[in-house]
Amino acid sequence: ENFKPAQVLDSLKVPDNHLAINRKLHYSIAKDDDNVHFEIDSLTGDLYLSRELDYETASHFLLQVIIKDYNNPPQNSTVFLSIDVEDKNDHSPYFQDDFLVIGIEENVPVGTLVYTFNAKDGDGSFLNSKIQYSLEMSNRGENPFLIHPLYGTLTTASPPDREITRSVILTVFAEDQAVNLTDRRLDSLAVKIVILDINDNSPSFMSLPLSYVMEDVEVGFLVHHIIAKDPDEGRNGQVTYHILSGNENKAFVLDKITGLLTTARLLDREVQERYSLTVMALDDGSPALSATQVLTIIVLDVNDETPIFLKQLYETAVHENRDPGEFVIKVEAVDRDAGLNSLLQYEILPGADYEKFKMNSDSGELVTAASLDREAQEVFSIKGSSCHDLGSPSRSSTAQLCLTVLDENDHSPLFAKTQYQISVTEDLEEGSAILDLSASDEDDGLNGEVMYSLIDDTYGAFAIDTVTGSIVSTKALDRETKSRYTFRAVASDCSTHFPRSTTVMTVLIQDVNDNVPKFEQNYYKASVWEGQSPKTDIIQVFATDLDSGLNGETEYSILSGNENATFLIDSARGILAIHTGLDYENTSSYRFLVLLASDRGTPSLNSTATVLITVLDVNDNPPVFSSPEYHVHVKESIPIGSHVTEVSAKDCDAGTNAEITYAIISGNDRGHFCLDARTGSVNLTKTLDYEDTVKFSLIIQAT
């Protein structure tokens, strides 16, 4: 059927014994039917295909061929030609659907029929239209389905499990069986198989089977959150919770929906320390499936006993200058609680000189944490020797320690404070004392004589008297150059092997009003349209003052050039604005407006700047004629084009706003006159006739 038109199919030959040799013959096909697929060469008898064939439309043709002999006498003969069309595989198999969704319950037996596919093929012959089925699975893994290659029946190859695979995407292929493999055609269909759930899974507990609760919790306290999961879906996966046993005294209540287990009454560890609840998780399937768990609840003790020291006052003595870690004394207390609530920890509470001692938190042994100095302190009275248990909340008690230090000569000088901060003004005179430092040394003789020095750079601004400790200025100060000095002062005695005492000095330089506010520009230019409403901003000026505080706060004012109070200025922001209306025709510029910037120091310092304000014209004045009426007498005989008169108007505005255009707006209906729009000249454009019109009244507009 795929034979191309215009090719020779066959050639008709007349046997020699049928017609005479060398006779002239004519071949034709009888046109009795509507067949137009074939033509025959009238001279040679060659049979041609004139139109493509379709096996599926017509698979057989019977042609009547007429052969005419034009010799004398003429003879005719008829031949019937039978033509069979061979099928060509030119049709692909096809499915009725583009996409198919199929539902099947999980756990059905192997071999269960899922669906029967029925693909069609338009070819006519057997093999070309015979269909064979196959399938592929889109995702990886073992394919749980099989398809019969001839019948197209899709069956289960293994029991489907929705909890493992919710759906499977398959591609089903339909291929014809043409003899030539390269001629075979196929079609495919995407199939989604949804695995439908059945209640085949019991709930499983996810929460731990152990929980702890304090004995002093309130009624309604959340003790445990019981969680069970069911991989089924819908009602098959909905779980409720129930207590089967172990709650005979109604100590707990379980929310069957949320699984929240709370206390139903007050607990007492001394009455019952442990509860074993058998809890069931039940799904809502039909039939329902369940699981149980034994939940152990341990009631924890509350710390309600206070530790007690064996003595309320401990007294002892210790030598000074001993290495840290020297044993001093051991304290001891008892606690009648159990477990962590009875385990005691000892400590020294913060207080005067407590950092010089260290207590073993477990044994209660007190040792020195630093070398002691009798000259600094001879007796230590520690009122905060404390012990506490490890309960929650912890309970504690205290005892007093009285420690006497046995003397050795070991004291070093000490400043009264570890740091000082003072303020001075920047105009302080050179050589002025700013602070008298003092350090004390409890030793006697030369060991108690204190010497003072500075060990940090003061940038040449300060020095200290080595004997008195007085700090003095050594040069003029300038806050704008440096506003803060930080350095250390040292006090030492003549003993070289003892550490020196230091204190940190911070000197803050206070401002003096010694800087004048300065405008960013000495001369400002600005422009503003006339007719602007009052308080319209014109320009903002800025002045800076290097001083701080009130000395550096700048206020703005108008010093001169504003005699008519035409302008005003925002004293804080420096914004110059209109105070009264501006009229260009009255004053077109203000050249000598002087602004003043003053600080708020005492005395106040100031500077000035000049502002040139140019007023821009607005078209706010109408033209005015030199005369409200013009009377002109002319003779009726004056020629056309003659000058009649000239009107004139003036406008107080400037520039283009003052350029005037003239026009006749009435009285010239018959066009006797013309008006020059720029000069105002009126000329005659049509002959006058006194007998026709004695008077013309022209209304002329100036714009």
UniProtKB/TrEMBL annotation:
Task: Output one GO BP term.
Answer: cell migration
Provide one Gene Ontology cellular component: catenin complex
| GO MF annotation: an example | beta-catenin binding
Q: Where in the cell is it found?
A: Membrane
Which residue intervals define the domain Cadherin in the entry? 1-95, 104-205, 213-309, 310-415, 416-519, 520-625, 626-703
Q: Does the keyword Hydrolase apply?
A: no
Cross-referenced Pfam families, in alphabetical order? Cadherin
Q: Which UniProt keywords apply?
A: Calcium, Cell adhesion, Disulfide bond, EGF-like domain, Glycoprotein, Membrane, Repeat, Signal, Transmembrane, Transmembrane helix
Which InterPro entries does this chain map to? Cadherin (IPR039808), Cadherin-like_dom (IPR002126), Cadherin-like_sf (IPR015919), Cadherin_CS (IPR020894)
CDD domains reported for this sequence: Cadherin_repeat
SUPFAM superfamilies assigned to the protein according to its UniProt record, in alphabetical order:
Cadherin-like (SSF49313)
Q: What is this protein called?
A: PCD23 protein
The organism named in the record is Origma solitaria
Give the source lineage, highest ranks first: Eukaryota, Metazoa, Chordata, Craniata, Vertebrata
